[in-house]
Write a structure and sequence with these properties.
With 76 residues, the chain is mainly α. The protein has one domain (1-66). 79% of the residues lie in helices and 0% in strands. It contains 3 helices and no strands. It is rod-shaped and about 70 Å long.
Length: 76
């Protein structure tokens, strides 16, 4: 019985770590899109509203969807 509890806790911890890692990957993807958006704004100058709109829309969408969600405690 103790082995099954330990295995369940290990599986739950692994699942949480995987989820947290995936959240961080998505957050870093959003950061890369932000960097590209800044480059586009600098390169395009006064035309950045027209030429970088697709990148700005993608960045806004990623900000809404790709938030890092962590866990504070282990549920027993």
């Amino acid at each position: 019985m103790a082995d099954t509890v330990v295995e369940l806790l290990k599986a739950k911890i692994q699942e949480r770590e995987d989820h947290l890692r995936e959240s961080w990957v998505k957050a870093m993807e959003a950061r890369l899109v932000q960097d590209e958006l800044v480059k586009c704004h600098r390169y395009e100058g006064v035309n950045h509203l027209e030429n970088c709109k697709w990148l700005a829309d993608k960045y806004i969408q990623m900000l809404q969807e790709n938030r890092v969600k962590g866990y504070k405690k282990i549920e027993v």
